[in-house]
Amino acid sequence: MKIFARKDEGGWTDLGGGNRRRILLHTDELMMVEFAFDEGGVGAPHSHPHVQASYVAEGRFEVTVGDRTDVLSAGDSFIVPSNVVHGVVALEAGRLVDSFTPHRADFLA
């Protein structure tokens, strides 16, 4: 099991639309993923059974979780309960660090 990750490790996956992700670390129970967005990039509304905790590492995002929307900036964070529809719009270029429990097997495929 990998315990430590360095900032220059891990390849980026291009998601299109100015968005990309890279898996930082994962076990069966937990996964940490970095997402990078160009200004105007959209994380389309979606849901999944995983509980998600997200940290805004850089930039500003309009974040919608269920029926609530807020603008979050670097240093802010949010939680997405299991199966709740959520999405983001990058108001400026930025990065999110998301943790998922359990891990996102679909990201590993």
Automatic annotation (TrEMBL):
Q: Per its UniProt record, what Pfam families does this chain match?
A: Cupin_2
Residue ranges of domain Cupin type-2 in the record: 35-92
The name this protein carries in UniProt is Cupin domain-containing protein
